[in-house]
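Recall the central idea of this unit: under ordinary conditions, the amino acid sequence of a chain determines the structure it adopts. In this exercise we apply that idea directly, starting from the sequence alone.
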Amino acid sequence: MKIQLAIFGLLAFLALACGSSRKAAGDGAALEQLFQWMTGSFSSAEQAARDSAYYDISLHMYPIWKEKGRWLYVEQAVGSMQDRPYRQRVYQVEQLDANTFRSAVYTLPDEAAFVGAWAAPGRFDALTPDQLVLREGCAVILKRQADGSFSGGTEGKGCESTLRGASYATSRVTIREGAIDSWDQGFNTAGEQVWGAVKGGYEFRRLR
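Accordingly, the structure predicted from this sequence is:
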């Protein structure tokens, strides 16, 4: 009887272990899918063409430091001024649990030195992650949705911003295959919006 119980216990343990392994593998696949959907060149040109409230913005996000995890160099610019980006960041994409992901946001020590580096990621070989500056409170927390997309945003008012008299900034993001919808807004201490789109987020579509 004791032997039978021991065998049963061993089988139950193996079943749980295999289940955990399958879950971990599935989770890894979801993280990889998110990362792949975030990677590439995107544009809001289609949205700008049908609605003058939006600008034609380019968004480039490409992997760097592949041996160190999932890092993306991110560059945004007005479509007609590609050589003068208005935002340069580095994102670190991580998984928190089965359906929750975090994109931490960092600034570069010398942004001018990396303009256009999305097309030549090797330029980051001379830089290390510990040289970046974390933007506290600006991480985007994403949840995997029933339809397979990832949706979420920043949490609270901890993402500091001084642009146009702002006190803090918020971001709301939805990511799916071929598309990223992003709504960035800045608010003053009274909670009044002072920068960013008003009607809704920017609709970035992947360029072929």
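Confidence is low (pLDDT under 50) at residues 1-26.
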